[in-house]
Specification:
single chain; 358 residues; alpha+beta; 5-stranded mixed sheet; 15 strands; 26% strand
């Protein structure tokens, strides 16, 4: 996003601050390569490349509209039937899977012209705590590593279950464009959260042990073999909300979370003008951090600084979608914390310090 002259002039007075802010970690989650899709080859198709392009476009539409049924909806057929019109790259990876890249501008222009919603790249980061029980005494937590219960050997049965669960989760996250994080399961994690905590879904303990990851939401799951496949239960924790997610498959928790996010964060073509107030902006470094953060947000089309002083930064912005969506998008990632709305209906945020969110 190229900032307008008024903002660029204001920012020049804080070049040093912006340089300092640039080296600070950015916590907004974006799904990498949102418009590049990897699909397995269909060697039975008369034209494998054309089949791959169409399959990739179908998957892309699910990612960026949040609609699981988008490929089957006639309204999306202009894109599904002619994916090559939107192609930006095509290649094969080492597993002979097609890697298909699409032009974001062209795809969004068509969706906007059809009056269809678009879910942008700024997305909630979801932290996963998953406990698995293989039904034969093997129990473990899934994370960046696997933490088996003390004194329990990781049997081939447990290993197979862990592999299947992790594969299904990561495939669902890729298909839905959902940024996820796994706990490290290091000494700090395991001293704060146990297998019993996750299996029993004691979310207060789990949330206390999750603050280091600065996630926007936490998905707590437990999986065990049943008579007709795995028995799965999910608990979705987002702020003060606790919601059990229905589902019969491991991926259903990811799908339900993605459906919810897309409904809250998708925007339709057109723009709205909004006043934004950011508090706790006490130094030039704070100013640079806020401006650097806003410049990364694809939902913003224009940002103008109206005033800066006494710890308060006042802005006027043009954004895709309405104020409700804008407030939710800017509140992701732990840089700006939503506060009560201003008396004039403006959006009010507080700049969060560089430490973990409390």
């Amino acid at each position: 996003m190229r900032l307008p002259l008024s903002l660029r002039c204001a920012t020049r007075r804080f070049v040093l601050a912006a340089s300092i802010a640039a080296v600070q970690p950015a916590y907004t989650a974006t799904f990498p390569d949102l418009y590049t899709v990897t699909v397995p080859p269909d060697r039975t198709a008369p034209d494998p490349r054309a089949a791959a392009e169409q399959a990739a476009m179908s998957r892309l539409l699910v990612r960026i509209t949040g609609n699981r049924n988008a490929p089957l909806d006639p309204v999306f057929q202009p894109l599904v039937s002619k994916p090559r019109d939107y192609l930006s790259s095509y290649g094969l990876d080492r597993q002979s899977r097609a890697q298909v890249g699409f032009s974001r501008n062209q795809v969004e222009r068509t969706l906007n012209g059809l009056g269809l919603p678009v879910w942008g790249p700024e997305r909630p980061l979801t932290l996963l705590w998953v406990a698995v029980d293989d039904g034969t005494g093997g129990r473990a937590l899934l994370g960046a590593n696997v933490a088996a219960e003390p004194g329990v050997d990781v049997s081939p049965t447990l290993t197979a279950l862990i592999t299947a669960v992790r594969t299904e989760i990561e495939l669902a996250a890729d298909e839905r464009g959902l940024p996820i994080a796994w706990p490290l399961l290091d000494l700090q994690d395991l001293s704060a959260v146990t297998f019993e905590d996750v299996w029993g879904r004691f979310d207060d303990r789990i949330l206390a042990g999750s603050t280091r990851y600065r996630a926007d939401a936490v998905l707590i799951g437990r999986v065990r073999p049943g008579t007709f496949g795995n028995e799965v239960e999910w608990l979705f924790v987002n702020g003060t909300e606790r919601q059990g997610l229905p589902g019969a498959a491991v991926r259903d928790g990811l799908d339900a979370a993605a459906d919810r996010y897309a409904a809250e964060l998708s925007t339709v073509s057109g723009s709205s003008a909004n006043a934004i107030t950011v508090r706790n902006v006490s130094t030039s470094a704070d100013y640079g951090r806020v401006m650097s953060y806003l410049e990364q947000q694809s939902v913003l089309q224009r940002v103008d600084v109206e005033s800066f002083g006494d710890g308060t930064l006042s802005l006027r912005v043009a954004a895709r979608g309405d104020a409700r969506v804008l407030g939710r998008v800017l509140g992701l990632g732990g840089v700006l914390r939503p506060a009560s709305s201003g008396v004039d209906g403006s959006l009010v945020f507080e700049l969060v310090g560089n430490g973990p969110l409390q």
